[in-house]
């Protein structure tokens, strides 16, 4: 049964001065709120290894943010911002980034009403020679609600990944109320980012340094990765009072067969680094259900966890995915999820969560509330009273589920 939740019940006062506009000089110098058994301790992030038991299994999202925001100009002088969301032609990320002359992407369009469908040229106010020779053009080939389907074409036979590096900027969150700067190229990216495709960083991972990762390894903490490409939907507020009317956008994810096997035989606490890792890991159960009932993996719907009772154990669901991959000779599960985690959700895999402090009335606050059995206000009241920094470049929390 889809829960009836009013988003206004998940609001709190967040003034602009509490939002971290820039990262700290040292990633691991951020504050860390540790919530366990209803009690809160204040730590520094670099102390994280000492808070974890040796048998802990940590799962990171190794997606990599791409400089997906570009500015184009009409002959009239009007500027159009184009923000790449996901590739359509080719539809696979690796093929789209490898395209060397043209590709089509689903994009968010800024100042869209002024784009009449004419071919746009990249805005190049400083007449940079490399951008002139690139001759990047954008053509509107269709509309899809509030987004547009844009065909990009360019010279020099460069892969589109290099085109973005030359022509794009880091898509920092809109609530920072500033343009991206040099510091964002390095800091709005985790140190372990690997697979290109996100238009927003998995921000819980921004606190990690190589030193912290090495000390975790020395402690005996086990580490694995998944990859979920974070979409622009992560920035979208819940506009309807009833959460049931809020649409979640599809995000693609990849999980290795070896990790699925490990999870099926899980005996140690599982710590998800970030809400994107949680959503990936918890989606696996419902992918497993589709393997059991329909013989193959399917995308996870937004309300799948709430629509009915499921008779299968977590182990049965994960083993069904593994068996499917093994039969098909595949080393990775590739799927998509629209899952929304709200109070009443049954967590089947994740025991601990490392996450930042999120916007009021957001789906991520709902996820945190679900994880701590409704005690999110205790955590956020403490953070507000003790000068924690909020949102993407802010401080973090280690939450342990009862």
Compact overview of the structure:
This protein has 402 residues and is of the alpha/beta class. It contains 12 helices and 17 strands.
Description:
The protein has 402 residues and is an alpha/beta fold. It has two domains: 7-65 and 188-400, QueA-like (3-Layer(aba) Sandwich); 69-168, Thrombin, subunit H (Beta Barrel). Helices cover 26% and strands 25% of the residues. It has a nine-stranded mixed beta sheet with strand order 2-1-17-16-14-3-12-13-15. Strands 5-6-7-10-9-8 form a six-stranded antiparallel barrel. The protein has a two-stranded parallel ribbon with strand order 4-11. Strand 5 (69-73) and strand 6 (79-89) form a beta hairpin. Helix 7 packs antiparallel against helix 10 (314-328) and helix 8 (275-294) crosses helix 10. The radius of gyration is 21 Å and the shape is globular. The mean pLDDT is 94.
| CATH architectural category of the largest domain | 3-Layer(aba) Sandwich
Count all strands and give the number: 17
**Largest sheet strand order:** 2-1-17-16-14-3-12-13-15
Oligomer: single chain
Q: Could you say which structural class the secondary elements and strand pairing correspond to?
A: alpha/beta
Instruction: Spell out the helices and strands N to C.
Output: EEHEEEEHEEHEEHHEHEEHEHHHEEHHE
Rg (C-alpha, Å)? 21 Å
As for the number of domains, it is 2
CATH superfamily of the largest domain: QueA-like
Strand content: 15-25%
Euclidean distance between termini CA atoms: 24 Å
What top-tier CATH class of the largest domain fits best? Answer: Alpha Beta
Q: Give the helix level as a range of percent.
A: 25-40%
Tell me the overall shape.
Answer: globular
SS summary, helix count: 12
The average pLDDT is 94
- Major sheet, described briefly? 9 strands, mixed
Might you state the CATH topology name of the largest domain? QueA-like
Q: What ranges have pLDDT less than 50 throughout 5 or more consecutive residues?
A: none
């Amino acid at each position: 049964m889809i829960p009836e939740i009013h988003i206004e019940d998940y609001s709190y006062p967040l003034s602009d001065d509490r939002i971290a506009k820039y990262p700290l000089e040292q990633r691991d110098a951020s504050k860390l709120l540790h919530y366990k058994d209803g009690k809160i301790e204040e730590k520094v992030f670099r102390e994280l290894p000492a808070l974890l038991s040796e048998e802990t299994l940590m799962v990171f999202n190794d997606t990599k943010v791409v400089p997906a925001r570009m500015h184009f100009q009409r002959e009239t002088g009007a500027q159009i911002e184009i923000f790449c969301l996901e590739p359509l032609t080719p539809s696979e990320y690796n093929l789209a980034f490898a395209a060397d002359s043209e590709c089509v992407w689903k994009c968010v369009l800024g100042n869209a009403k002024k784009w009449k469908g004419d071919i746009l040229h990249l805005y190049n106010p400083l007449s940079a020679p490399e951008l002139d020779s690139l001759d990047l053009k954008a053509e509107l080939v269709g509309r899809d609600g509030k987004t547009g389907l844009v065909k990009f074409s360019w010279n020099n036979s460069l892969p589109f990944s290099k085109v973005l590096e030359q022509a794009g900027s880091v898509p920092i969150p809109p609530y920072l109320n500033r343009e991206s700067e040099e510091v964002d190229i390095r800091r709005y990216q985790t140190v372990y980012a690997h697979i290109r495709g996100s238009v927003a960083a998995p921000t819980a991972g921004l606190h990690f340094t190589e030193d912290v990762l090495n000390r975790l390894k020395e402690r005996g903490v086990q580490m694995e990765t998944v990859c979920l490409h974070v979409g622009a939907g992560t920035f979208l507020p819940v506009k309807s009072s009833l959460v049931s009317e809020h649409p979640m956008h599809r995000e693609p994810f990849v999980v290795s067969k070896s990790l699925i096997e490990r999870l099926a035989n899980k005996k140690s606490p599982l710590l998800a680094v970030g809400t994107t890792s949680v959503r990936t890991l918890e989606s696996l159960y419902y992918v497993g259900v589709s393997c059991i009932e329909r013989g193959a993996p399917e995308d996870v719907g937004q309300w799948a966890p709430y629509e009915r009772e499921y008779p299968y154990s977590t182990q049965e669901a994960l083993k069904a995915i593994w068996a499917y991959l093994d039969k098909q000779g595949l080393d990775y599960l590739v799927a998509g999820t629209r899952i929304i985690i709200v109070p009443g959700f049954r967590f089947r895999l994740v025991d601990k969560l490392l996450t930042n402090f999120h916007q009021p009335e957001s789906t991520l606050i709902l996820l945190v509330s679900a994880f701590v059995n409704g005690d999110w206000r205790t955590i956020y009241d403490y953070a507000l009273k003790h000068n924690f920094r909020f949102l993407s470049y802010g401080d973090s929390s280690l939450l342990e589920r009862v």
